[in-house]
Write a structure and sequence with these properties.
The chain is an alpha+beta fold. It is built from 11 helices and 42 strands.
Amino acid sequence: MLALAACASRTPDTPPPSPTGPAAPEAPEPARPKPPPNIDPAPRERPDVVITPEPARPRRRVAPPEVARERDWLALGATGAAAFRQAHPAWDGRGVLIAILDSGIDPSVAGLGVTSTGERKVLDLREFSGEGSVALARVTPHSDTVVVAGRPLAGFGRVAALDADGPWWGGVVREIPLGAPPAADLDGDGAVDDTLAVVVARASDGWVLFADTDGNGSLAGEAPVRDYLVAGETFGWAGRGRTPPVAIGANFSQRGAEPALDLVFDTFGHGTFVAGVAAGHAIYGVEGLDGVAPGAQLLGLKIANNAHGGISTTGAILRAMDYAIRFAERRRLPLVLNLSFGVGNEREGAARIDALVDSVLGAHPELVMVVSAGNDGPGLSTVGFPASARRALTVGATHPGVFVRSPGGGTGDQIAVFSARGGELAKPDLIAPGVAYSTTPRYDTGDEIKQGPSFSAPHVSGLVALLRSALAQGGRAADAQAIKQALMVTARPQDEAGFVEEGTGQPDVEGAWRWLEGTRSVPEVSVRVPGRDGVTAAYRPRGLASAADTLQRFELARPAGAAPATFNLRSSAPWLRAPRNVSVGPGPSPVTLRYDAALLRAPGVYTATVSGWTSDTTAGPAFRLVNTVVVPHPGSGGELLASVRLEPGTTRRAFFHADSGRPFVVRVSTWSPLQAAIAALHEPGGMPFRDGGQLQAGADSGAAIFRVDARDVVGGVYEADAAGLPFGGATVSIRVDHAPFRLFGEAQEGRLVTLLQSLVREPVEVDIRAVLGGAERRDAIA
């Protein structure tokens, strides 16, 4: 089983400004439920379960939607989406289906109701996470009342009018397991201790649900709710005169002769936000405030257990992918899959989900799947999975210039600090706006601006929908490889940023369309590093082993049955040398690159790419051999970077060796108290430092301090980073100080034995404290 988490950023990166203040709030933390007590079917009657309702308070939008439209807070200008739609009004995504594999979608939000042509926007809502499963049991009415899990409901005649003979079923939804308010407060009464009953019956056109939505204790006057796919109906609980905080859809299936019920709801807000970025139309009722592809239709496929922080599993993702593919095939609609979920990856390319995703995409070559790169940046080798799947279109994040206001005016788009970077993988493929103003459920009002690679992925999914729409209306087709190539070849790179930072850059949808118009083709070539499963790039985190360690091998391959092809090779840097050409067939075709050790001596990071070209150079490279060499600081501590200039949105990196058992402190500071930067520390392998990977850095006492004690030190090369804020640069220094000793501890015959090893000649005074932090028990299980 694989657990995946929603990929919104929670870094100290500066949030975007609001029109009335300096900053809008960052994306919220996921709801963290308190450990529930032993809950019986009637928790309100338990004296030991006391949940105090939150006082009602008005919730206002972070900014009026009209302001968001005027200021392009969906950043459509960054990728040319707005200009493309203006030039080609009918190519706005109409005729294309985008599947949002996420926390669900609330289709009642204005902007997710209809497409630009008036069609239903959300074609289906499906539950794959298991969070919305409702256990049903037969119920028997007495006169006009039915009791469901101890709760009497009058007005049963409303149910009998549709199903006079039964049998009937009842079940309950408990708010407590759904997390914290306001999201889990399904009925909006300020508390999350409610148990809400539903009754299921069989009408002439299928299963229906009845609920006491207004809380008056009666089903009289309540409307039957059918499966969302059948009728597009939702319901919600709220007192009379109030609007439900979240819309809920019903999924019915059948086990033998009995119904099975799953409820679909977005109590995280993530999927609803993602949907608006990809395809919202007239968001919050404002004409012209649209997502990237307002003509596209949506599938809301819930793969996330929202109460547990948006956790998903391999099985949920695969079932959702299968459902979307079959749904689109039945309706003959071009399909785009969007997955704004992932997990930080210490072994890039080795996860089983990567192979599964690649297998599905290989079986459906027309299918584009867009995945967010992850938010473990700015360190190298931080792309999460399944963004590490080779066939996925992996997208990192920018901080759009439309959100940056400074005395000198706005700056251009910048690579976001939180955006994951490549290293062991030739990823990300692209970067796109990672900050946006979008649709939120009603309980999430006030959080219309969020940031994270989660929102870069749907931007690119929307771009793919624009291209698919144009192709379909022209009676043309293009497979996923061609669309990916078109977007990557025509993307605009950031100044001096390498492939591991941004892929080929930020896409230009008009340029991608012109590439597709040219009916170009590029031979498919897969790339791998021999001996490393799933690794698609050369990554030397410890530098060269010696002056003679200068050869780097790759293996290339064409698909089975494909004709061999010859490619000319080009290197992007003097230190990286390649043969003039290489011939690639269906079997593994080795190619050896050579590093110039004399040019790789100074501490730092070196990244370069060898690209393979056919005779049609306008088609772009068929493959890229990405190489990164890290040269750690040679000393045992001290200044790693001393008063270096950091421009807005850029990152300066320093690498140093750490010994297991030897504590150290990293200090990142700015030159002036008027300056600020983001400091980051990454462990060997790319994982953010476990006690908190990012801090804000200032001068003097405001410096960012990372204290890594002996129990947390991982032997290997650490990466310390200073990243510029979007609105201003800084002069920064990075320093590391290692302890003058190593510390080891082990249990010997019931005793804790501590060993100190001095690493300096002069005496060292230390204060040793041993703490029993827990206990361990080991049992052999056959």
